[in-house]
């Protein structure tokens, strides 16, 4: 594996299209950093940035219909030596790719089938979180402004509120199916499973830190927001009032330990 890094000029360039408030983008940034993959971040603005991103993605696929639904994070991989251009369009794809480039974290995808199963639980938990957050935003007009572009919020607040209201509606419809497919019962079942596993071992899969631990730590941090969460202020207070993790304080404490030990500083925070 080391010979792939001998010629730095032959290494691919990595550009992560990332949404600052997205837990999925946070997961991708963490996985790339953990595996030592250098990357740049291009901030994404929902709605206003979708057309431009869609046009960029057409360059990375031979099947335009694959660009029908645009969501972030997306990792654009450009290899000048081979002329290959690839777009990785899910946190799991990005993390798997990062693992293939890592020279030191060979356990990151130990027992890939088990890790993939935890990714499915991560996706389900965050779909629930996303649905609850959108409910909170629709019920609290002051939260709606968070979904307007910063320039409009600063200089044209009336237009910003109108734009944000449309954006929230588009966002809600875009992910309605995923959000409706899960429930609080599913979340608590996952927490109970984690509680059982973590009562006898430090990590979810095997004896080493894996993507399963990373992903589930991010997911739990968004139903029990801590200092690294992308949920702040009133959104955080509303989520905590749901008391989703009551009875699972040990799992929340495990999440905090994972962050303390492996997260570091998310310098590429956009």
UniProtKB/TrEMBL annotation:
Lineage: superkingdom: Eukaryota
InterPro entries (UniProt xref): Glutathione-S-Trfase_C_sf, GST_C, Thioredoxin-like_sf
Domain Glutathione S-transferase C-terminal: 183-258
SUPFAM superfamilies per the UniProt record, alphabetical: GST C-terminal domain-like, Thioredoxin-like
UniProt protein name: Glutathione S-transferase C-terminal domain-containing protein
Organism: Aphanomyces invadans
Phylogenetic lineage: Eukaryota, Sar, Stramenopiles, Oomycota, Saprolegniomycetes
